[in-house]
Write a structure and sequence with these properties.
This protein has 263 residues and is an alpha/beta fold. It is 22% helix and 32% strand. It has a single domain, classed as 3-Layer(aba) Sandwich (Rossmann fold).
Length: 263
């Protein structure tokens, strides 16, 4: 498993210069400290949801020691920075295929040495795909599947084989503390390519955009994971938290559980 240099002492992030007329500055507070980010217009709600702990509710579990985090579908760095602020000693590998998002990610996390950006997406193989952009949602809903959320603008992006790419960073069997995937349709594809890693993953955060795919993912993860949180804020946008059953049994991960009632 690769390791990154230790993070410097935490300090509030300065507001980076605007790179585009569609950008704006977001201010938020985590653990009593103020921070600023450069974000695309249209993504303020997502930014708030993440830094208020609603999007990735890490408060629903306790972990004995978070070491490695995979942020697949990193957008402009919201989740990577949030996880870094929650788990400052963790090594975070972030994957984002859209160049415009990569520029903002670098501007926002340039001084966070524990986070490494990989400027491509992950999929079933190495390929170039057309990504349909969603500026009304701050590019966060951009997808290879064109829907009513996409205005017609598109960009070519690079995808790499998830199995080979992650294998070069975290050999199969090595622990992954948190796996977060939000790839606007590629969630099942990525998970399927990462089957070898799943027994050693402790926590999985997913956003899924199809009930059929949610059921497919549930079957895929069933041998190793328990679903511990599910939210459907609207339409086909399903947020899921899975915890590794063995990690729970061995005490690496713990939750405050209601009793099971089984008739």
């Amino acid at each position: 498993m690769t390791s990154l240099p230790p993070a410097p002492a935490a300090s509030p992030l300065p507001a980076p210069p605007l790179l585009h007329p569609d950008h704006q500055v977001a201010e938020f507070t985590v653990r009593g400290r103020a921070h600023r980010l450069l974000i695309p217009r249209g993504s303020m709600d997502d930014c708030r949801a993440i830094f208020e702990g609603r999007e990735y509710p890490v408060g629903l579990f306790r972990h004995a020691g978070v070491t490695t985090i995979l942020d697949i579908g990193a957008h402009v760095g919201f989740a990577s920075l949030y996880f870094h602020l929650q788990f400052p000693d963790a090594c975070i590998h972030a994957f984002e295929p859209l160049a415009e998002n990569q520029d903002l990610f670098r501007a926002n996390l340039a001084d966070v040495l524990q986070v490494r950006l990989h400027p491509h997406g992950l999929g079933a193989g190495d390929e170039t795909r057309t990504l349909y952009l969603s500026r009304q949602f701050g590019l966060g809903a951009s997808s290879v599947v064109r829907t009513r959320d996409h205005e017609g603008e598109s960009a070519l992006v690079e995808l790499r084989d998830a199995r080979k790419t992650i294998g070069g960073l975290v050999p199969p069997g090595n622990p992954v503390s948190i796996l977060k995937i939000d790839t606007e349709g590629f969630e099942f594809v990525v998970l399927d390519r990462l089957r070898e890693w799943l027994p050693a993953v402790d926590v999985v955060f997913l956003e899924v955009h199809s009930e059929r795919r949610r059921r497919d993912i549930d079957r895929l993860l069933a041998p190793w994971f328990q679903l511990r949180h599910c939210e459907v804020p609207f339409g086909h946008r399903i947020k899921l938290l899975y915890l590794n059953a063995r990690a729970l049994q061995e005490g690496r991960v713990a939750t405050v559980n209601a009793p099971e009632i089984l008739i």
